[in-house]
Design brief:
621 residues; seven-stranded mixed β-sheet
Length: 621
């Protein structure tokens, strides 16, 4: 029997209704199960995620350690700087009698000027303008209070608002005491403004030892950024000086403003270590004065070492620059005269990092190598005025023609004599002495050492380069009888917080190795070095100081600088006064000769060392 069409249609509709019912029921069951899982099983996970999105963390900078010389004279200090900060969250939370905050009032006033209907993009831009205008008006009000013109750059404000809204914004830096008093005494201070005392880095000796001390720079963004060492010892010992920053955690709302009624968690910072250097500020001053006493445009360096301990007493490098020029902001003049000066390079530490061809001061070490290989220092050879390297090439000698033994050849700086015996003993003994004295081993440019290469090496030319500090340490080893020290510049450290005790740490002298030099060979070298200064015909006679025994060697090395032929002039020496041994090495770029240019500079340094001893300034740790 055929089914009634009406009944068939009704049956199909009931079927569809049941299908829809079960689909909806299944969907509801899935939703309920999902909510149950989230609420019961995943509750802690989502709670933690929600909290991490609603909390902000701000670093609390640690107190940076200070830098002192060996007598406690400050070289890098922290002084309070009084800045005015503006709390944007205060502007957000503080409402007037109509329930509006400062930003909303400013927005309403600007919006009145735009009668047309605003699109979202315009609303966003008007909001940015309203916020900046509101803050700019407050900053102008601050300027009237402290009698100083103060402005805030729009880009600075918008960046802070978008990146660091929960942190205070610095709107005026380095208020002087009078401005601080005006602000403190004013009866109606601008909304949300406070004075904060922040430490800033000061270098009381300005340009003195600038390249050695280096500078630290504060990162103002994020606003509570700490100082970070950029160059010199500020950078090298940054881990000691910086300490460990603390952390402040607080809750913010969905607008990224800090919620004032919520608790703040603070992890205290750990202050850095203050460091005490081997540098003696009085000797450092004498060194830098001596370098510029004869020419104020000198490019060069001088190093003074305590030969019995390896202590670095002075590291002079000129020209120099005032470390305080980095603060509060670098001027355009400083940028041009210091950072962009590729010829004088004031920031370059010539004493520690300048690699120079040593010229004839290297004959000290070549002479030792010759003596160790059995050369008789009394033997005389004839100097014809030039040494023939090949049929087409001679090496000239500035010493007069005639017969020379070791002593005379040394004080006259005879190239012929040292080339002759350098070629006789060969390359290996010279390289061995270089290694023992801690100098960088030279490499021939073509990987093979030819006769001309060894001849040039014998007189300190060609592949060999040294730094003033390296050769000063080598000279100190000659002075003390053969002990090669590591240069010591850090003597001790202790916490910069006076409340923290028992943190002092001392760094004793470190012996690199004992050279085990033959005492007879040392006596020959010392006698020749003394003759170079004390004899009337010695090339280093201009370094002589009455009352002090000075042992030295001059040097003049030919080189190329900025594409033109030039000279590096040297004087390597050590002096004996009372019970002290000082090694003094001077190098000047573009000088006339070691004897004419560098020996007089060394004389001034030795004179000050004598005065220094007489005044009993110098102390040894």
């Amino acid at each position: 029997m055929n089914e009634n069409p009406l009944e068939k249609r009704q049956k199909e509709e009931r079927t569809r209704a049941w299908i829809l019912f079960w689909i909806m029921t299944g969907g509801m069951l899935v939703l309920v199960c999902g909510l149950f899982i989230i609420q019961i099983f995943l509750h802690s996970r989502y709670l933690e995620l929600g909290q991490s999105q609603s909390y902000r963390k701000v670093r609390i900078p640690a107190m940076r350690g200070e830098i002192f010389d060996r007598h406690g004279e400050p070289l890098a200090m922290n002084l309070p700087r009084y800045d005015v900060t503006l709390s944007l969250e205060t502007l957000h939370w503080t409402r007037d009698e109509n329930g509006d905050n400062l930003f909303n009032r400013e927005y309403s006033q600007i919006k009145e000027l735009h009668k047309a209907k605003l699109i979202d993009a315009n609303r966003s831009e008007l909001g940015r303008l309203a916020r900046y205008n509101a803050v700019s008006n407050l900053v102008s009000q601050l300027g009237r209070i402290v009698s100083r013109e103060i402005e805030i750059e729009p880009d600075d404000f918008h960046e802070h608002y978008s990146q660091h809204l929960a942190a205070p914004m610095t709107i005026a830096r380095a208020l002087d005491p009078g401005e601080v008093a005006l602000f403190a005494e004013h009866p109606e201070k601008p909304l949300g403004m406070e004075i904060e005392a922040r430490p800033y880095r000061v270098y009381p000796k300005k340009a003195l030892a600038a390249q050695t001390i280096g500078y630290a720079q504060r990162k103002e963004d994020p606003p509570m950024g700490n100082y970070n060492g950029k160059t010199g010892l500020e950078s090298f010992y940054n881990d000691k000086l910086a300490g460990e920053d603390g952390l402040m955690t607080f809750m913010v709302n969905n607008f990224r403003y800090r919620m004032p009624e919520k608790d703040v968690a603070v992890v205290s910072s750990i202050p850095g270590q203050s460091i005490y250097l081997s540098l003696d500020i009085h000797i450092q001053q004498a060194v830098e004065y001596a370098l510029t006493a004869f020419r104020n445009d000198t490019r060069g360096a001088a190093v003074v070492i305590d030969a019995d301990t390896g202590d670095v007493l002075a590291l002079g490098s000129v020209p120099s620059y005032d470390l305080n020029q980095w603060y509060p902001r670098m001027s355009y003049e400083f940028y041009k005269t210091v950072l962009q000066d590729s010829i004088n390079t004031p920031m370059f530490n010539r004493a520690m990092n300048g690699r120079y061809t040593p010229g004839s001061i290297f004959k000290i070490l070549v002479g030792l190598a010759c003596l160790q290989e059995g050369i008789d220092p009394s033997q005389k050879i004839y100097n014809p005025g030039a040494y023939p390297i090949s049929d087409r090439h001679d090496i000239d000698d500035t010493a007069p023609t005639g017969y020379y033994n070791f002593r005379d050849a040394f004080k006259w700086s005879s190239n012929y004599y040292f080339i002759h015996f350098g070629l006789e003993i060969g390359l290996d003994p010279i390289l061995e002495v270089i290694r023992r004295f801690g100098l960088k081993e030279p490499r021939s440019s073509n990987k093979n050492w030819y006769r001309g290469d060894i001849a040039n090496l014998s007189i300190g030319q060609g592949a060999i380069t040294v730094t003033p500090l390296q050769f000063a340490m080598a000279t100190a080893a000659i002075a003390n009888g053969g002990t090669l020290y590591e240069p010591r510049i850090l003597i001790r450290e202790k916490s910069c917080d006076p409340e923290i005790r028992d943190t002092e740490k001392w760094y004793p002298p470190v012996v690199k190795h004992h050279l085990q030099l033959n005492s007879n060979h040392l006596a020959v070298i010392r006698d020749a070095m003394l003759a170079d200064v004390e004899d009337r015909d010695g090339t280093g006679r201009r370094a002589s100081v009455p009352g002090m025994k000075i042992f030295g060697k001059t040097g003049t090395a030919e080189t190329y600088r900025h594409g033109a032929k030039d000279k590096n002039t040297w004087f390597a020496s050590y002096g004996l006064y009372k019970d002290r041994k000082y090694a003094v090495v001077v190098v000047v770029e573009g000088g006339r000769s070691g004897g004419e240019t560098c020996a007089p500079i060394a004389r001034l340094i030795y004179q000050e060392l004598m005065n220094h001893e007489a005044q009993e300034h110098f102390g040894s740790w």
